[in-house]
Amino acid sequence: MRAEYLGSKAGVSARETVSALAAGQDPGTGRRTVAALNGDFFDINETGAPEGSGLHDGTLLNSPRPTHTRAIGFDAARAGRVLDLAFEGTLSLPSGERPLAALNAADVPADGIGAYTAAWGGADRALTVNSAADSAEVTVVKGRTTDTAHAPGKGRPPAGATALVGAGKGAAALRALPEGAPVSWAYHPRTGDGSAPPREAIGANEYLVTDGRPVDHTGEGNDAAAPRTAVGFSRDGRTLHVVTVDGRQADSGGVTLTELGLMLKKEGAYNAVNLDGGGSSTLLARTPGTDTLQVGNQPSDGTERPVPNGLILTAPDGSGRLTGYRVGTAMDPLGAPTADPVTGGHPDRVFPGLHRALTAGGHDETYGPAPGTPAWTVRGGGTVDRHGRYTAPRARGTAEVTARRGAAWGSTKLPSSAPSTASTPAPGASRSPTPPRAPASASPASMPRAAAPPSSPPTSGSPTTTTCSPSPPTPTDSPSGRARRAWRAPSPRRSPGTPPPSPSPPGSPTGPSPASTTRPTGRSARPAPPVRSPPFRTATTAPGCA
Asked: Which residues, in sequence order, are CB contacts of 430 under 8 Å at separation 6+?
């Protein structure tokens, strides 16, 4: 698996939904996108630019605020780490050298000068000087100024041009430059430990786990329950843990930073950090057997929030040969009706005599799409036709429906029980001549789960082939927040013949979900609700990417 910076082609200050960002980024020749998530905190009320560093393919896109140097990075060897990533720059003017304080950053420090290139985007550069009493801008092309100082401008700088923006004493230095003055600069990212900068990086915030120890944030301003997004790494950096937690909703109040750290520690993270959360928390995951990314969590704003950056996870293309099926109900659980306060229902539950439409997505050894129409069979009661339409028996029980073609197969379990007199059947379920009435759901909604088939799953073609679909969730207890846990991406050093994990159930983003921050500027969160939701069940995935 490969993790890379995800950003807008319109520049670092441009904001788009994670879905739009992922759709606009080419995964590369012979690769496909398997997941994406939101990233850094950002200047939500003004420029929209991220607060931390941005590195893509070894190129520094933007520098961090001096107070926001923590980052997550990925090296060419695909190992990940948490690090301190600062900025160093020098600006050479006719009057002498002075520091270059920022590159495409949300803020120009007091009395400093920042450089803004086409990678900045179209945000108003006057917003970067924080209402300084004096500010100025000059444009530099091919090492010389093309104008005299003027007020900071709007619009994206043209390719090959750099706008130098000064505040306070920095503005005075720019005002002293005549048109045609020679100007040059140099800059680089600097790691806190002196190591080489990573190839890919985005800014991060609070430590959640440090050297294997969860961090206690009790009493801190940002430790209220909220929607969260976080990432963690194993000790060797070769396993990536991604977690989102829904919050500010009736069925999921969110988690605190302290709770989030405990969750990541339990998952196996040796070091972990908090990313932007609140309404920004978004996790996309590919459904096995398709190239479609789906939003796996429920953003607290009711829809995806536009953000400046994130992470995108890609994997090598597979062979395209059918090795298995991901079987589930045609109805999306999140859209299924329920009487519970928990969003979504249980379309996998079928009442005696009713029908349920099933789907079988064929996939190869990397869970990419593979063609092949299966034959359907059922065990444990009921019938299934050649189109995957299941009819439940009159008696209670649990049926296992299997789709199979040659050695490739997949299955799901469908429980049936006596009907309730309190509610009506879910849409998509047709009645028998004597229609029973569907009961209200009695427990929190969960993503449908592909049942483990009676025989072993298909094996991976290569021990180093990346597979990016997690295995079926296993219920565990969790703090009060609905978590979606995605991509525990293990090291490629898997022994030959080791089978890949089973595919996730329909639409599942791999289980539970975590958090955001509540900074007053919105960066990007609002105060958490006073009432916490009751405990819920989360799903823990097995390693899904190698």
From this structure: 354, 355
Find all residues with CB under 8 Å of 121, minimum gap 6, and list them: 8, 10, 11, 12, 13, 14, 49, 156
Mean pLDDT is lowest, of 35-49, 115-129, 306-320, 530-544, for: 530-544
Residue 223 CA to residue 205 CA, distance in Å, equals: 13
- Answer yes or no: are the C-beta atoms of 488 and 544 closer than 8 Å: yes
- Structure confidence at residue 542 (pLDDT): 31
Match 């009711």 to its residue by tokens. 302
Whole-angstrom distance, CA of residue 55 vs CA of residue 190: 12
Please name the helix (run of DSSP H) or strand (run of DSSP E) that holds residue 171, with its range, or none.
helix 169-175
Phi and psi at residue 259, to the nearest 5°: -65, -40
**Half-sphere exposure in the Cβ direction for 251 (13 Å, CA):** 23
Q: How far apart are the C-alpha atoms of 318 and 303, rounded to whole Å?
A: 32
Contact (Cβ atoms closer than 8 angstroms) between residue 88 and residue 197: no
Helix (H, G, I), strand (E, B) or coil at 19: helix
**Virtual torsion, Cα 463, 465, 470, 474, nearest 10 deg:** 0
List the domains of the chain with CATH numbers: 42-191 (no CATH), 205-318+477-540 (no CATH), 320-460 (2.60.40)
How far apart CA 134 and CA 498 sit, in angstroms, is: 64
159-197 pLDDT tens trace: 999 999 999 999 999 999 999 999 999 999 999 999 999
Burial zone of 283 (CB within 10 Å; 0-12 exposed, 13-18 middle, 19+ buried): buried
Contact criterion met (CB below 8 Å) for 519 and 525: yes
The 240-246 sheet, strands edge to edge: 213-214, 207-210, 271-274, 228-233, 240-246, 482-489
Tens of pLDDT, residue by residue over 272-287, are 999 999 999 999 999 9
Please tell me the distance from the alpha carbon of residue 500 to that of residue 510, in angstroms, as a whole number: 15
H-type alpha helices, 11-168: 18-23
In tens, the pLDDT along 10-55 reads 999 999 999 999 999 999 999 999 999 999 999 999 999 999 999 9
Question: Any residues with CB less than 8 A from the CB of 522 and at least 6 apart, and which?
Answer: 44, 45, 278
Neighbours of 182 (CB within 10 A): 12
Radius of gyration of the chain (CA): 26
pLDDT score recorded for residue 493: 39
Q: Which of 419, 318, 417 is nearest to 366 (CA)?
A: 318
Model confidence over 413-441: pLDDT tens digits?
Answer: 999 876 544 444 444 444 444 333 333 33
Q: What angle do CA 423, 426, 428 make, to 5 degrees?
A: 155
Residue 243 corresponds to which tokens in the numbers above? 């977690």
